[in-house]
Amino acid sequence: GQQLNQSPQSMFIQEGEDVSMNCTSSSIFNTWLWYKQDPGEGPVLLIALYKAGELTSNGRLTAQFGITRKDSFLNISASIPSDVGIYFCAGGNDYKLSFGAGTTVTVRA
Amino acid sequence: DVKVTQSSRYLVKRTGEKVFLECVQDMDHENMFWYRQDPGLGLRLIYFSYDVKMKEKGDIPEGYSVSREKKERFSLILESASTNQTSMYLCASSFRQGPSYEQYFGPGTRLTVT
Hints:
The structure holds two protein chains of two kinds. Chain A is mainly beta. Chain A has no helices and eleven strands. Chain A has strands at 4-7, 10-13, 19-25, 31-37, 44-49, 55-58, 61-65, 71-76, 85-93, 96-99, 103-107. In chain A, strand 6 and strand 7 form a beta hairpin. By secondary structure, chain B is mainly β. Chain B contains no helices and eleven strands. In chain B, the strands form two sheets. In chain B, strands 2, 4, 5, 6, 9, 10 and 11 form a seven-stranded mixed β-sheet that branches. Chain B has a four-stranded antiparallel β-sheet with strand order 1-3-8-7, with no helix packed on it. In chain B, strand 5 (42-49) and strand 6 (56-57) form a beta hairpin. The model of chain B has no long low-confidence stretch (mean pLDDT 94). Chains A and B meet through strand 4, strand 5, strand 9 and strand 10 of A and strand 4, strand 5, strand 9 and strand 10 of B.
């Protein structure tokens, strides 16, 4: 599969903070998607992006499909405790997805 | 709501055993996928299927095989389980047309091979 570099690897959030994560690749993708995985569960689709430059929101989540088609970012505004989990980016080509290694979000004590 | 179910949440098998993992989806999706998830590596595609009786190798097919006899069911088979196949296994499905990249996942099967 194609290599995706997702950063940061992990982050701590404080309730009310805005957080951001991104994904880059040396390959061009036709689509970018963002998933969230809670402990012991399968990933759940958050946002799908189909057009270069597209900016899409889903509640407090905002994601963008990079203009070069080689990157994407996800922002979470006004974070809440249930935002903890692992966030994955995925790039799509030929009806298949390649996944990043994930960003683990935990609550700062 | 899309529902993807997997036959077991947790499984413990011995080295050399034949292991079957089953996945069923109820949304009439044409595409079905098997991934394994390991810490720090994300999700890696093992096999996928675009149609009944059709299968394609993913990125890490060695040591695995699959079967798709019915549209809603996709099975992953470990012919002779080894300890390096201890992992979380995730099944997913999607449409062939339209939003075909939007894959929906099952809850996963955590397999331990001892």
